[in-house]
Design brief:
single chain, binds nicotinamide-adenine-dinucleotide, 9 helices, alpha/beta, 9-stranded mixed sheet, Rossmann fold, Dihydrodipicolinate Reductase, domain 2, 24% strand
Length: 371
């Protein structure tokens, strides 16, 4: 495959993560041409230029449209705040570029639908940044479930918590604006939804209660502004398979740093995983003498692909940024026409439908079917 020309829009937390992945994917996997870091876009020229130097991009623009229009760019990484995803992704696809867009897909169902339509019309690859499905540990869980290691899944419990918005004195930012979406649903719930989709299949119905721990937050310029999004969501659901479940998300949870705690219960065993201990999973199988049964901790290693591409030693552990490197490799596989483990726009739209059904449930105080 010829070397891909990369455009990147946004260089915050996720922009840096994408840039590191594009720099690392060829040396890590050793089987693809090194992508060319062609053009970086930021909110202004000065920031764009300094970030291009830092992250290794040849050109820089304070106008993202220059990135999308650049004839040497084959793929655009979109890592800007949620409210920009739709416009940027549609422009990139219309210009004939592949797209790697951060989650959530969009802030409205109409935008997400238009994004899928643009992807289908372009014939280009359009994928979303659902990196947690790339972890060798969660991939192994998927294999264990498919192989019947815990029997038929009948119940799932997921909790996603972080504390970056736990401090009432934390300043008002874009994540508290209604323009960014509903809050914890778009910011957090979509990640567990990507994992559930891969591990146990999609949701069929939901009932949801959302909460705002703080009614207002201080403005950096002085004074305060009313918080427009919900930081907490409590969700009960039914999977399409019929299994029951719950998903609890909270981005104001003091002490929790990167928790995505999953418990999957089946007719013959259980599986546990927590992103805060991302290099291990726990398996219980109701087999053998009862006196010797218990959870086994499995540390990921070279037998859990693609761990071996990073380190030859088991149990030493991958990190969060490595998941983006794996996602970049999957994206390149997909562009080359090979099978790939990715959440593309069609599945992404299904996740968005689920999120909007959750918001409707909160408003109507009742169960909502998805679709
Ligand atoms: P951030 O605030 O750290 O970075 C956003 C960047 O976009 C900033 O550098 C900002 O200057 C730039 N930007 C804003 N408007 C722009 C414009 N018009 N043109 C060009 N650049 C512009 O935000 P973040 O935490 O990196 O989040 C970005 C996206 O990544 C969000 O959609 C978020 O949901 C997603 N995200 C995903 C994960 C994950 O695990 N996949 C983790 C964090 C964030």
């Amino acid at each position: 495959m010829k070397s891909l020309g990369i455009g990147l829009i946004g260089t915050g937390y996720m922009g840096k993560c994408h840039a590191l992945a594009w720099n690392a994917v060829a040396p890590t996997f050793g089987d693809v041409a090194r992508p060319r870091l062609v053009h970086l876009g930021e909110a202004n020229e000065a920031l764009a230029r300094s970030k291009a130097t830092e992250l290794g991009f040849a050109r820089a623009s304070g106008d993202w449209r220059r990135v999308v229009e650049d004839p040497e760019v084959d793929l655009v990484s979109i890592t800007t705040p949620n409210q920009f995803h739709a416009e940027m992704a549609i422009a990139a696809l219309t210009a004939g570029k592949h797209v790697w867009c951060e989650k959530p897909m969009a802030t409205s169902l109409a935008d997400a639908t238009a994004m899928l339509e643009a992807a289908e019309a372009s014939g280009k690859v359009a994928a979303l940044g659902y990196n947690y499905i790339q972890n060798p540990a969660t991939r192994h869980m998927r294999r264990l479930i498919a192989d019947g290691a815990i029997g038929t899944v009948n119940h799932v419990r997921v909790e996603m918590d972080e504390d970056f918005m736990a401090d009432a004195a934390a300043p008002f930012g874009w994540k508290s604006e209604a323009a960014s979406g509903y809050g914890a649903l778009d910011d957090f719930a979509v990640h567990p939804l990507s994992l559930l989709t891969i591990l146990v299949g999609p949701l069929a119905s939901v009932v949801v209660d959302m909460a705002k721990p703080y009614a207002e937050r201080p403005l950096a310029s002085g004074g305060s502004r009313a918080v427009e999004t919900h930081d907490i969501a409590n969700i009960l659901f039914r999977l399409q398979s019929g299994a029951s479940g719950s998903l609890l998300v909270n981005r104001s949870a003091w002490g929790r740093k990167g928790r995505i705690a999953i418990q999957i219960f089946g007719s013959e065993g259980s599986l546990l995983y927590d992103q805060e201990r991302m290099n291990e999973l726990q398996l219980f199988q109701a087999r053998g003498p009862a006196a010797e049964q218990g959870f086994r901790t499995i540390l990921t290693g070279t037998v859990h692909p693609p761990y071996d591409r990073f380190i030859p030693a088991p149990g030493h552990g991958l990190g969060f940024n490595d998941l983006k490197v794996i996602e970049a490799r999957e994206l390149m596989r997909r562009i080359a026409g090979e099978p790939a483990h990715l959440i593309e726009f069609a599945t992404g739209l299904r996740i968005e439908r689920t999120v909007h059904a959750m918001a409707r449930s909160h408003e109507t105080r009742g169960w909502v079917d998805i679709d």
